[in-house]
Amino acid sequence: MHRFTLSFCLLAATAGAQVTFDDLRQSPNQNWLTYAGGYSGQGLSPLTQITPENAQNLVPKWTFNVPKAKGLRARPIVADGVMYYTNTNAIYALDARSGRVIWRYVDTQAKKEAVNRGAAILGDQVYFVTSDCFLVSLDRRTGGLAWRKQYGNIKDGVFCSSAPVAINGKIIVGTAGGDEGMRGYLAALDAATGKELWRTYTIPARGEPGSETWGNYIEYGGGATWLSGTYDAATNTLFWPTGNPWPDFYGGDRKGDNLYSCSLLALDADTGKMKWYFQFTPGDWHDWDAQSWPILADVSYEGKPRKVIFHANRNGFLYLLDRETGKYLKSSKLIDNLDWASGIDAKGRPIPVPGKDPTPEGNRVCPGVRGATNWMSQSWNPATGLLSVVVLEQCDIFTSSSKTPEPGKNFAGGGAGPKPNDAGQFFLRAINPLTGERKWQYPMTGKAEMWAGVTGTVTGVLFAGDDDGHLIAIDAKSGKHLWHYQTGDNIYASPVTFMVEGKQYVSIANATSIFTFGLFEPVKSVPVPPMKIQ
Amino acid sequence: MQFDRILILSLSSTLLWAQHAKDDEAAKHPFMGNPDRIEAGRKTYLGGCAGCHGPEGGGGRGPSLIERGAWHPMTDENLYATIQKGVGIMPAANLPPDRGWELAAFVRSLTAPAVEMKAPGDAAAGEKLFWSTAGCSSCHRIGGKGGFAGPDLSNIGRTSTLPKLRRSILDPDFERTPGFERANLTLRDGSKLSGLVKDRTNYRLQLQLKDGTLRSVPVEAIETVELTQPSIMPADYKTKLTRDEVTHLVSYLRQQGAD
Q1: pLDDT of residue A236
Q2: pLDDT at position B27
Q3: Which terminus has fewer CB within 10 Å in chain B: N or C?
Q4: Which domains does chain A have, with CATH numbers?
């Protein structure tokens, strides 16, 4: 198993060569170069050292307590043995073998403090966004600042949290703030200079096509883009999910479909022009952002090869779409507690059940506001044909308010949450996304408070966070528990796996720290090196 | 052990008094951050306070006003009251309110990010010194150019203060930035490696080589380590550079990281 010679192990260089677009297309391999691991969002690592047979031998290798961390959301990226990890207005470069800091960059002057979801890497640069919407380009070797470019203004109700997506020569960034009234957009910045190359709004301007699907408040319509999208390099297409229309829980002043909220957009990565869109939840009243992973897969569908997208939506349905046209192919129920729609019609439009809108006195609707799933990562394994996705079976009381909306004042037109005695439950489910058939499920105890996702490997191990703060390893074929480790706090982030110097590691952040695991090896006594200090 | 001290010092130095301008921030006195008022305050300071706190605020009979803010962040009102009423052996200033607030604005400016402050000097002359005559760029990078032997200064205007920039040039050993010890390693296989120690524990060294490449070396691979701890930044700039040249350099550096 240990094919590498000792001297190779000891002296392998790290952070040497540049990270090319081609490297990004190969990820994940020994590296984990994008937030999703790879452009397709499949969440499947080709590493083979950790298997269902030996996963029981996983042990902690190191922990890094992220300064000032409260509820870490970020997933690390790892390149040549260096892990880059973001928190609010801060990024750390860590030795991925030891968890020790190599450099840090902290923006103490940022004018906003929000969660951050991760970094991107291209060439010699590492990129992340500050909460006040600067894209920051740093030298990956030193953390030295190349430039900071503002691409959004918090005065417009926008803030920034998503992990940028690096493609050929461009960095794609999204926007957040859709619960308070803003106009969402996606922008491409030149990777070398930070110059804005294009910007595509997710909500049309008044008078533009699509604006007829709105009433008042279209200027603050939302449609945030806070989850990183996926990318098809073969067709140079970005697939980006959009958030809810605003005000979230009262749609009385915006009757219509509210394009392009709660949708998936396919955009030409060179121009930002829309190739197609698919709206999951037209005229949404339940804050069911489409922020979940658009997973790109090539499958055999009805006997023919087909390029498709799987999308496990917050509204409770798992969709199968044609990747080239956005055409609706099929859907199935992700969850059992789904009462707002009786199904999806032939065109892909939900068939609403009357009486399921939020009301001033409160109305119980399933799924709840956090959705059947959310931005936690998923894992698709073409070999087994199974999509592993963390789902939440929960119903919430949705209330609405017809108060005149006020943008920028934390007004959402109502609210939602479970009754105290009616909390939900998380499950890890393995589903055939072509048929909707559930192969197995792993139920979780806990308070239904986590936001942890799942990552798979080709050997058939799934790593996931559970609702009690454990990192768990699950057999991808059977759903059986293999291993678990208690991290001591809730988990709101998704795991990654990578390899350095011939050793495979698994990392996940809980609310405050990053934990990294590997297979057990007896520790040999290390001599104190003769040190001469001048 | 020294390593720990270095780290603590430099972490505290990143806690600039820059919390103003956050979303939820309370209104501040209009003189705070106002360049004219700060300049007026500086004049009053040189007359009545510098004798005890040092001409640059670095301390003397009274404490340093350059770093104390980090240990004891004071509210603006507290700062104003301390100046006006005195404390311990420090006499009360008892100035008219405007002049008191000018002093408070000046004292606060000593711990404010350099980029937010006005500074005398000619930034263009400073730039020239940095990239040629003074040789700073052989060790420091700005905007992706320069050497790796010292900290990248591309953002130094946002992470340092005017008095600290000046002191970094004149007295490099006063406050160190972690990650710049220099090490020569002889490895068990006979090969040699030299670089900057980005991090070291009893089990592993993270070296950065001349070209910026990182090497993570486990201690069991090491035969001997030679560490050079005093800063490699020349300590004689205070005699080699004129007062004006230092002012020009500070004026250039304070702009690094500006929007």
Answers
A1: 98
A2: 66
A3: N
A4: 15-64+82-100+114-519 (2.140.10.10)
Q: Scan for tokens 């007896």, then name that residue.
A: A522
Q: Is residue A505 a contact partner of residue A518, using CB atoms and an 8 Å limit?
A: yes
Q: Chain A neighbours among B 93-132 (CB < 8 Å)?
A: 113
Mean pLDDT score, B188-196: 95
Q: Which residue of B has its CA nearest to A146?
A: B143
Residue B118 pLDDT > 90? no
Active site residue A287: yes
If pLDDT is split at 50, 70 and 90, which confidence band does B121 have? very high
CB B103 within 8 A of CB B111: no
> Using the beta-carbon criterion (under 8 Å), do B14 and A106 form an inter-chain contact?
yes
B39 within a domain of the structure (yes/no): yes
Q: Is residue B118 part of a domain?
A: no
Q: Do A144 and B152 touch (CB under 8 A)?
A: yes
A109 to chain B: closest CA residue? B18
Mark whether B67 and B132 lie in a shared domain. no
- A303 part of contact set with chain B, CB < 8 Å: no
User: Which site among B7, B19, B155, B259 would you substitute to test the A interface, given the most A Cβ atoms closer than 10 Å to its Cβ?
Assistant: B155
| Residue A155 touches partner B, C-beta closer than 8 Å | no
- Split into its structural domains, chain B has a count of 3
Residue B135 has pLDDT above 70, yes or no: yes
A533 contacts chain B (CB < 8 A)? yes
Cα(A101)–Cα(B178) distance, integer angstroms: 11
A16 at interface of B, judged by CB pairs closer than 8 A: yes
Q: What is the mean pLDDT of chain A?
A: 95
Distances (CA, A) of A471 to A56, A114, A454, A468: 13, 25, 10, 9
* Domain that includes residue B83, residue range: 2-112
- The amino acid at A129: V
Q: How far is CA B245 from CA A37, A509, B114, B126, B170, in A?
A: 50, 48, 17, 7, 11
Query: What's the token pair of residue B12?
Result: 């505290």
Write down the pLDDT at residue B228. 87
Q: Mean pLDDT over residues B246-257, rounded?
A: 96
- Does A529 contact B at CB distance below 8 Å? yes
Å between A267 CA and nearest CA of chain B: 30
d(CA A302, CA A438): 19
What is the rounded average pLDDT of the residues A249-273?
96
pTM of structure? 0.91
Average pLDDT of the residues in A11-39: 86
Which residue on chain A is closest to B201 by alpha carbon?
Answer: A100
B40: pLDDT strictly greater than 90: yes
